[in-house]
Amino acid sequence: MSPAVTDRRCPWGARTAVMAILNLTPDSFSDGGQHRGLQRACQAAHRMAAQGADLIDLGAQSTRPGALDVGAEEELRRLLPVLQMLVAARREGDLPSELLISIDTFLAPVAAASLDAGADWINDVSGGMGDAAMLPLIADRNCPYVLMHRRGDARTMNDLASYKSVTDEVEQELLKRTDAALKAGVSTDQILWDPGLGFAKASTHNLTLLQRLPQLAAHGFPLLVGPSRKRFIGEVLSEPRPKARIWGTAASVCSAIAGGARVIRVHDVGPIAQTCRMADALWPRSKELSPAA
For residue 270, which of 40, 51, 208, 283 is within the disulfide window of CB 3.0 to 4.6 Å? Predict the structure, then answer.
């Protein structure tokens, strides 16, 4: 179903892509339980597509700090019925044929079953460290793969948010995980980087990463950035309600696009799709880079 383009990771050309978050969990930090149930989830996906989503990112395992792992069986129980309905809707023309479906998982069995069911991308918050079978699977399936920076897991990452130079250390750790992916047979044209805002990062770390994003973009791997509703925005704005952080999210999205982000992962698709279009006009891309890792 993916468009036949030269760069299958970023088939949108110079335009920044919008990845819509569709959580199928009861405990995600800002929308836990909101999309539970097959009909509600599919209605949300149709609404997000109509609002301008280029990708729908389905997640059935919460990755918020302190979240407990539910395991592959439960993750697939939550995930597969929705994925199958969306793939069918895309095939039948009820969803745009160019809409891509991403799966937010760090477990290889979940990734494999999802790809079998018609998913296009795998979005792995663990950068391949959550399951030793993930990178060989990605190599075998030859699909786009979002490799995110994180230290530890949902239960330990907040204790590991210590850096002397956050951008340099995130850069080196992304390069290390990229090297592991390449050694497992993953090709450079499959990989996107995500600096992992909010994952093993304090607020000052997240702000610094946004300010210095060009340092990561210089390696040529398309950057996916996900600031949506995150705690660092709430701390800057003194806004405890995640759903009320839309304007802080929009400002962060503008900074990310100015710094070279190619994909923006968000909850509030309509307003942020408009934000992306305006930011693209203000900071047009002058050139594309080739991966040099």
Answer: 51
